[in-house]
Specification:
9% helix, 430 residues, three-stranded mixed β-sheet, mainly beta, Porin, 51% strand, 4 helices, 18-stranded antiparallel beta barrel
């Protein structure tokens, strides 16, 4: 469903149900908050994308509001609220193209004492990783991430129904997404990437096609999380049934067509205090129904991902965090035997190390952050330093860089190495 149609449908439904349930509802207008921001990302390397000098130049106005129903009526009794967040964007990268990015438009309520519900356009997220997503298979916007937009824009919204249930012994999140929403990945116009059909890093010359699953009820996405506190620790179990949010499989090689293969994921996590800091562990098993035996060379194999993390407050406004993730391709022998001589191949094991350093200065008005990815198996790396200065309560200035290296063009970070940039953002909040 398009965003405009979604807004019209939401407003229509609310206009119908409000008079029925509102009774003597208050007509008080909700407060509006938001910010005005200017973003710039200057490129440090040459490639074949649309622009030679920059990959981010835009102005953004975000408005957000929340309306609570009041008065003697059913909606107020159920703690009903309407949540809205949307961005008006002028994108100079596309010659001043204007657009509206709907971030949130949903209704939240408590229909029963044991359940909270949120229905509509919303951001979904869970898991314990810092920039590493194992059981969080909800859509991400990696174009925003690698060009230097605020971290808020890494998470893409979904049209979803979320039910937060609180039985006696544990809590549950149940999510239903009728229309699969994939990750936003490089397409060659703004960010270059490794295109296997081209045999190298491609920009605007890429002409591959990505096939989305048809909008049918059988292609809906289901996800669930059950979680419980054990003293100071929180344990969780996860389930996901839908599609791989990034296109990893080939539907038709001759037609240069990839697709989002079906994916079932089962996982668990734990997080809590350890060694005077906070530790976390997470594991997820990705089952590929389209290639259950691992012997179809064009389809992503099943795999397991493991994550260990630790963060500690060192005092003096300094915080350190470390993570180690291991990815293992299953049925690896069958995968290798199915490959053709001209195919690109992946190692059975992939290791990823990360480090985050956060330090505050000047009464915590200046924040220095450095996040680094390094894969000793792929021999690629990515460093994201940034400085944020809260000039006043309203004005904030951020500058940073996306610095990416890789020995090979085919690895996850190596294929992005021509997208190095320096970015800056100036924001006025109101």
């Amino acid at each position: 469903m398009g965003k405009v149609k979604f807004i019209i449908l939401s407003v229509t439904v609310l206009s119908i149900i409000s008079p029925v349930f509102a009774g003597k509802a208050s007509a008080k207008m909700p407060e509006m908050h938001g910010f005005i921001e200017a973003d710039l990302g200057l490129k440090l390397t040459d490639d074949t994308t649309k622009r030679d000098d920059y990959n981010l130049l835009e102005q953004r106005l975000q408005l957000k509001s929340m309306y609570f129903f009041e008065g003697d009526n059913l909606l107020s009794q159920k703690s009903t609220a309407i949540n809205f967040k949307g961005d008006f964007v002028v994108d100079e990268y596309y010659s001043g193209k204007t657009s509206f990015d709907l971030r949130e438009l949903n209704v939240s309520l408590t229909p029963f004492d044991f359940m909270d519900t949120k229905l509509g356009h919303q951001i979904l997220t869970w898991g314990t990783g810092d920039y590493l997503f194992l059981n969080d298979l909800f859509p991400k916007d990696y174009i925003s991430f690698f060009t230097g937009r605020d971290d808020e824009y890494l998470k893409k919204p979904s049209d979803a129904a979320r039910f937060m249930v609180y039985p006696k012994y544990f809590n549950m999140d149940l999510v239903f997404i009728p229309i699969f929403e994939p990750n936003e990945t490089p397409k060659g116009d703004r960010l270059s990437f490794f295109d296997s059909f081209q045999g190298g890093i491609a920009g605007c010359d890429s002409d591959r096609d990505i096939s989305k699953p048809p909008r049918q009820i059988k292609n809906s996405v289901y996800a669930a999380r059950a979680y419980k506190n054990f003293g100071s620790y929180e344990g969780a179990m996860y389930f996901y049934r839908g599609f791989n949010p990034s296109p990893k499989s080939y539907k038709n090689e001759a037609a240069r067509q990839l697709y989002y293969e079906r994916l079932d994921a089962y996982g668990s996590s734990i997080r809590g205090p350890i060694l005077d800091g906070i530790g976390n562990g997470e594991v997820s098993y990705y089952y590929s129904p389209d290639d259950s035996k691992g012997n179809i060379r064009t389809v992503q194999n099943s795999m397991i991902k493991y994550l260990l993390g630790y963060e500690k407050d060192m005092g003096n406004d300094l915080r350190l965090g470390f993570q180690y993730m291991l990815e293992q391709i299953l049925d690896y022998k069958q995968y290798r035997n199915a490959l053709l001589a001209t195919d690109y191949s992946w190692d059975e094991f992939r290791h990823i190390l990360t480090n985050r350093i956060t330090k505050y200065f000047v009464n915590q008005t200046v924040k220095l952050s450095v996040f680094t990815f390094f894969s000793p198996s792929d021999m690629d790396a990515y460093t994201r330093p940034s400085v944020t200065w809260n000039i006043t309560d309203a004005w904030t200035w951020t500058t940073g860089a996306n610095l990416i290296w890789g020995k090979d063009d085919t690895t996850e970070l190596g294929n992005m190495k021509n997208n190095k940039n320096i970015f800056t953002r100036l924001r006025y909040s109101f």
